[in-house]
């Protein structure tokens, strides 16, 4: 930073000099007044007329010198911008890339840090990729964070950032499904991610819940999340790590389940054979499907003649005019 012009006055005249210079609009607003043991240094506007300044201070009998100084810069005040939905996961923020259409990266970081002074990192989320539904995360501020702990209804979940699927907005759905379950049920979450549905269910019901996910990191999180919540669990959770398609081969599990949860919205309709073999008669299937038009999905499900469609509801926004729906089906 190059030096700027300051008025240097003895400490005892500091307050008066500041007041007078302020009244004459001569203080440079971009810098702070500072002092050492004996003197106060008042940063002066570049355009200030030195003769005028001199005559004003002389008139008030203030001893002063005009010097070059290096005052600290004031933090620039930026108006806080609206940041459309972002996720605060522990002390980490994840924000979607499209927010940059309306706000600069600098404004984004400034606003998020002002609103959340304790955060350690801000990540930009690019598209969700591959069958593990992994977010591609780019660190835009702070130190890299490997894992975070988030809370849902008092339960704690470990998430390995960028290595597992997690969506905070599903927490209500986890709870809703858990309330639908009854004591004694045997439940399977075929695509369980870090175990959200399973842990909510086992925390409310004396049930047996299988939590399966093909992603080894998600499987590790399920194990850790069972330990993290063990004192709240009434039911038993059995973690598994297989491709759900192979349940068709696992005969001991066939016909065992009162309830299946199939939250793989882009391809859940392709696993019908799996649902057929795992579910008991009168068992319930919660099927999640991404769609612009739920009527189209209803038309497909009406052709599943071994099931009765009991209803459906919108669960999440996915993209403009596109939502994730849950369809509830009863096996005949
Ligand atoms: C949308 S996420 C599930 C989210 C989870 N139900 C929750 O509430 O957080 C889908 C999960 O399915 C897993 N997955 C994808 N294909 C699979 C397959 N064929 N068999 C088992 N798991 C699979 C992915 O690894 C991912 O964790």
Structure description:
There is one protein chain. The chain has helices at residues 11-23, 50-59, 105-115, 171-180, 196-204, 216-228, 272-278, 294-302; strands at residues 4-10, 34-35, 39-43, 64-69, 86-89, 92-96, 121-129, 134-142, 147-152, 155-160, 186-189, 208-212, 236-240, 257-262, 279-291, 307-319, 322-331. A seven-stranded mixed sheet has the order 13-12-11-14-15-17-16, sandwiched between helices. The protein has a four-stranded antiparallel sheet with strand order 2-3-1-4. The chain contains eight helices and 17 strands. The protein is an alpha/beta fold and 332 residues long. Helix 4 packs across helix 5 (196-204). The chain is elongated and about 100 Å long. The protein folds into three domains: 4-69, Alpha-Beta Plaits; 86-145, Met-10+ protein-like domains (GMP Synthetase, Chain A, domain 3, 2-Layer Sandwich); 167-331, Rossmann fold (3-Layer(aba) Sandwich), CATH 3.40.50. Strand 5 and strand 6 (92-96) form a beta hairpin. S-adenosylmethionine binds at residues 131-133, 165-166, 170, 191-193, 196-197, 212-215, 218, 243-245, 263-264.
